[in-house]
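G., the chain you wanted modeled:
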Amino acid sequence: ANAMQKDIQDCLDSQGSIKADYFIRKPISLNEVQGMVAAISQKIVAQMKGKVLVVDDDGFNLKLICELLDKHYLQHIEATNGEQAVIKFKENHEEIFLVIMDMEMPVMNGLDATKSIKAFLKEKNLQDVPIIGLTAHAGEGYRNQGIEAGMMKVMSKPINLNEFAKMIHHFSEY
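Predicted structure as C-alpha cells:
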C-alpha cells in the first residue's frame, strides 16, 4: 500500500493537482498511440518555436487570445498597452516569433507600438517579426493604417475563431 501511495504522490504537484498531460487506458490501440505521439510532437515543436506577444487592453480579449494560443501549445507573453508591449518585446525579442497587437489602447496605441518595435528590429539589425493587428473597426482605411505602421495583417474584432486558428497555424510555420 505504501508503494502505491508513493506512486500516486509522484503524480501530484505541490497543490495536489495531477501532473499529467495525457492518460492512457489499457489496452491501447495503435491509433491511440499515433494520436498521442502527434499531439506531443506538436506541443514540443510549438514550444521550440518561441513565444507570441499578445497585446490588448481588454481583459476578455486578452484571455480569449491566450486560451486560443494555449490550444495550439504556443507560449505567450501578455501586455495591456503599447508601451508595455515595446518594453516586453525589447526584453524578450530573442524568444518572440509573433506579435498580436490591438490597435486602440491607452498609454500607447498599437500603431505607435508597432512602429517602435519595427524601429528596434531595424536598429539592432534583427530578423523581422510579424505583427498582426486587431481592430474593432471594419473600414479599409483603418486596416491600411496598420499595414503602413508595419503590421503584416489586420484582423477585425470580434475574432473569427477559424480565421484566427488558420493565422496562428500559418505564422507558427513562418
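Residues 97 and 129 are 6 Å apart (CA to CA).

Shout if anything looks off.
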